[in-house]
Amino acid sequence: MPAQQAASPARSRILAAAETLFYDRGITAVGVDLIAEHSGVTKRTLYNQFGSKARLVAAYLAERDRRWRDLVREAVDRCEDPADAVTAPFDALRTWNAASPRGCAFINALAELPDPAHPAHRVAEDQKRWLLGLFRDLAAAAGCAEPDALATRLLVLHEGTLATGPLPFDTLPDTVDLARRLVRADV
Amino acid sequence: MPAQQAASPARSRILAAAETLFYDRGITAVGVDLIAEHSGVTKRTLYNQFGSKARLVAAYLAERDRRWRDLVREAVDRCEDPADAVTAPFDALRTWNAASPRGCAFINALAELPDPAHPAHRVAEDQKRWLLGLFRDLAAAAGCAEPDALATRLLVLHEGTLATGPLPFDTLPDTVDLARRLVRADV
DNA sequence: TGGCTGGTTCACCGATCAGTATACCTAGGA
DNA sequence: TCCTAGGTATACTGATCGGTGAACCAGCCA
């Protein structure tokens, strides 16, 4: 299926059901029968579209990653000051977190699927690698002295707020504040 | 069973097998049959000891928490300078992380078990609450101006390095360095 | 000696798991 | 008109899931 071509309606419905079910209840805990039922589709169709549960999981993560990158890029593009742009992913995180009370779908997927050969691993690692690279590029563009070290620290702060999201502490404001101060101190 | 009394040898063996299997392969992916087999014990005995898989999971996390707190307390006690003590949990993290390539067992457990009523939730939340409180107390003892905000930020850094542990980036050195600078700047 | 405790062996329960087989239906294009 | 692609419906596989029932056995203490 070329990227341009629209996905079949059945495929879209399966993917939508998979996204909510996998994220809300966990990947291992959700069976393919349940996803087929929730998307109003036969299990046969599901397997014709995705081939296996593992590939469906990878597709679910890839779709989620796509939506998330769009949100981050929007937040970055909205900034006029290059220094503000460096912490723009944290603004996106505020929106994203509100709809994601169960933490980071990619970290959760790695937690559930230990096998490094599982196709979900590539997707999850690529997502974090992309964010780290984005932080580095934005930091360099803003004229930071140590873009690599700064990017690593921003990534850790980002993942830390995501990871503590499901916990009953509100860590976001203090973290965003710290991220901004780090950038300004390094410019 | 009182706390003083030694656990039965069967119970200890079950718990040991559960620790490695649950952490390495995931909680949902590991069945009670497998744990019974690895600990050289009957499933009947396992259920006599723990009652249900959910309680066995909670016991596994509680045992892991106990070992981890011991490690952290040791690291704190080793410090002479109160300012160094604030970041002592990060020294413990270096040791801990080396044996824990699959990230934080407690975060992973929350990822796999969405039901807030699951007994594992209490254990996991208590673990993070304890660490947050420890950071606050250590910061206050070191004379920090804003112990609450500092503790939140240190917790986020701590969870961030744990969460990025399974990823192919080395985030620990930059993070520990940042944590130390934060403490010194706030003293 | 007798009873209790903690452990054993083994068979079993209904439900669910990922994945497949077979056959039928239907809309669209050549 | 016929073929094909994508979908449906239903039934099925063997394995595994969490959890239970029943009978038995060895050591320990009174």
TrEMBL record, chains A, B:
Matching SUPFAM superfamilies: Homeodomain-like (SSF46689), Tetracyclin repressor-like, C-terminal domain (SSF48498)
DNA-binding region: 31-50
Domain HTH tetR-type, chain residue ranges per copy: 8-68
Single annotated GO MF: DNA-binding transcription factor activity
Domain of life (superkingdom): Bacteria
The UniProt record lists the keyword RNA-binding: no
Gene3D superfamilies found in the cross-reference section: Tetracycline Repressor, domain 2
Keyword annotations of the record: DNA-binding
PANTHER family assigned to the protein according to its UniProt record, in alphabetical order: HTH-TYPE TRANSCRIPTIONAL REGULATOR RUTR (PTHR30055), HTH-TYPE TRANSCRIPTIONAL REPRESSOR BDCR (PTHR30055:SF200)
Protein name: TetR family transcriptional regulator
